[in-house]
Design goal:
Layout (H helix, E strand, L loop, with lengths): L1 H12 L3 H4 L1 E11 L9 E11 L4 E4 L9 E6 L1 E8 L7 E8 L2
Antiparallel strand pairs: 1-2, 2-4, 3-5, 5-6
């Protein structure tokens, strides 16, 4: 009975997450691309996350982590995205995305 309790305590504390969760996957979608004719070219992205163990935290361009998955008014160019799940730093995905017209 003590062994069963120890296993349950580890699972509940999140220490056994790798056996219980799927790999963290991240896709980035441009929801609005910058227009080359604009004086200020900006666009919007959505970060689609699956797997891992929610809740997720997202950082864009080395900014602070937040629970947001949509980011607006981004400058044209390469966007750097980092996503962690609740087991951070065990599951971390870093991606770059080219936000171009």
């Amino acid at each position: 009975m003590k062994v069963l309790y120890a296993v349950c305590a580890l699972i509940l504390s999140g220490l056994c997450h790798t056996a219980l969760s799927t790999p963290l996957t991240v896709d980035v979608v441009a929801t609005s691309r910058p227009c080359i004719d604009d004086l200020v070219s900006r666009g919007n992205i959505r970060v689609d996350i699956s797997g891992g163990l929610p809740p997720y935290s997202v950082s864009v361009n080395n900014g602070p982590f937040s629970a947001a998955t949509t980011f607006n008014d981004l400058n044209i160019g390469t966007i750097f995205i980092m996503v962690v799940d609740s087991t951070s730093p065990s599951q971390v995905v870093a991606k770059s995305f080219n936000l171009l017209p």
